[in-house]
Design a protein that fits this description.
- The relative contact order is 0.16.
- Among the domains are: 113 residues, Cytochrome Bc1 Complex, Chain D, domain 2, CATH 1.10.760.10; 36 residues, no CATH class.
- The strands form two sheets. Strands 1-2 form a two-stranded antiparallel ribbon. A two-stranded antiparallel sheet has the order 3-4.
- The protein is mainly alpha-helical.
C-alpha cells in the first residue's frame, strides 16, 4: 500500500472472520471520467446513511447503545486476551479490523442490516442462528476466542448498538452498501507470487514484511492487524476465503485512501494479494478442526478450501480458482453457487 504522509495512519480494531457479507455489481473496465460521473453520483445518493451518534437517546437504552459501540470499537481492551471485563478474544484482534468505522463504512462489512436479517439460516452451521450467535462466530473464528454468554450485558449491548444502527432498515431486508461490493471473477487461478508484488507495493507499510502488523505500545490492541501467523484469523473465517477477501481488499484497502467509489487496486491485484495473504503453504495461522463446517456439503461456498465437496473440483481450485467453472457446474446440477 503506497507511501503517504504519517497523518494518514489508520486504526482498525478486527479481521473477525468473518463473519457477514456479499455484493452489488461493478464493472472492471476503466471509463473516461465524464461518462462515469453520473452513475457513480446516483449510486452514492442511494447508499444507506446510518444515524449519527449524536442522536443516541440520553436514557438507559442509549447507555446500552453507547456501551455496545464502545465494545465493538475497542473490543481487545474490554473482552480480548487482556480484557478488563472478560477474556473472550484470543489474539488481540477486534471487531473493527473487519467491520470498519464501528460498522458504518459502506461496503466495509458494516452492520447496517445485520439486526434486520437475523435470525437467519447459516450454511456453515447448517441451522438458524440468532444475531448474538453470529457475533460469537466472529469471536471464535477471526478473534480465535471462545463464545460469550448470549445473555451477558456485553452481548446485549453490542446487539443493541447494531439494532440502533439499522433502525431504518426494513425487517428482513437489505439496503444499498450493506454487503461487500461485487468484483469480477478471474478466468485464471489467483497467483500468490503476483500477490506478493502487490503486497510489497501497497500493504507492507502498515502490515510489515512479516505480515504481523503493528501492536500498540500498550500491548493490548493493534494499530495495524496481523494478516497471518498464530495471532491472526483462523482458516474458518470468511476473510480466509479468496472471493470474500478480494472484495473486502478491493474496496477498502489501503484503508487510508481506498473507498468503494475510489478503489486503488484492480480486480486482479485484489485477488492476487488475497491469495498471497491466505497462502497456507507460505504463512501459518491457527488451525482449528473444520470437519464439522458446512454439514450439508453442497452448501459450501465455492471459495471454501476445506474438503470434501460434492463437485469434482480440487481443493486447490476451490482455494484459488478459477471459480467460474465450479459455479457453472453447480448451476447445471441445481446446487448453490454462492460465495
Amino acid at each position: 500500500m503506497e507511501e503517504r504522509s504519517a497523518t494518514y495512519r489508520w486504526t482498525i480494531s478486527t479481521l473477525c472472520a468473518l463473519c457477514l457479507a456479499a455484493a452489488i455489481s461493478v464493472s472492471c473496465q476503466r471509463q473516461n471520467e465524464e461518462p462515469s460521473q453520473q452513475p457513480q453520483s446516483k449510486a452514492a445518493d442511494s447508499i444507506f446513511v446510518p444515524p449519527d451518534t449524536s442522536t443516541i437517546p440520553k436514557n438507559a437504552t442509549g447507555d446500552m447503545i453507547r456501551y455496545g459501540r464502545e465494545l465493538l470499537v475497542n473490543f481487545p481492551y474490554y473482552l480480548g486476551p487482556k480484557g478488563t471485563v472478560g477474556k473472550y478474544g484470543g489474539n488481540g484482534l477486534g471487531c473493527q479490523n473487519c467491520h470498519l468505522e464501528a460498522g458504518t463504512r459502506p461496503y466495509g462489512l458494516n452492520y447496517f442490516s445485520a439486526h434486520a436479517r437475523y435470525p437467519q439460516y447459516r450454511a456453515r452451521e447448517g441451522r438458524i442462528l440468532t444475531l448474538s450467535e453470529r457475533v460469537n462466530n466472529c469471536i471464535e473464528r477471526p478473534l480465535n476466542g471462545r463464545p460469550m454468554p448470549l445473555d451477558s450485558k456485553e452481548m446485549v449491548a453490542m446487539v443493541t448498538y447494531m439494532q440502533w444502527l439499522g433502525k431504518n432498515v426494513p425487517v428482513g431486508g437489505n439496503v444499498e452498501g450493506d454487503r461487500l461490493k461485487e468484483i469480477t471473477l478471474l478466468d485464471r487461478p489467483a497467483d500468490p507470487i503476483k500477490g506478493r508484488v502487490v503486497y510489497e507495493k501497497h500493504c507492507v507499510r502498515c502490515h510489515g514484511d512479516d505480515g504481523q502488523g503493528v501492536l500498540k505500545e500498550d500491548g493490548i490492541a493493534y494499530v495495524y492487524p496481523p494478516l497471518w501467523g498464530k495471532l491472526s484469523y483462523q482458516p474458518g473465517s470468511s476473510m480466509h476465503r479468496l472471493i470474500k477477501s478480494a472484495q473486502f481488499i478491493k474496496y477498502n484497502m489501503p484503508n487510508d485512501i481506498a473507498r468503494w467509489d475510489k478503489p486503488v487496486l484492480t480486480d486482479e491485484e485484489a485477488f492476487d494479494v488475497a491469495a498471497y495473504v491466505n497462502d497456507d503453504k507460505l504463512h501459518e495461522r491457527p488451525q482449528p478442526p473444520l470437519d464439522a463446517e458446512y454439514p450439508i456439503l453442497k452448501e459450501k461456498p465455492v471459495d471454501y478450501y476445506w474438503p470434501p465437496y460434492v463437485d469434482g473440483f480440487t481443493p486447490e481450485q476451490h482455494k484459488y480458482g478459477p471459480f467460474k467453472p465450479i459455479m457453472e457446474w453447480r448451476k447445471k446440477n441445481g446446487h448453490p453457487t454462492g460465495y
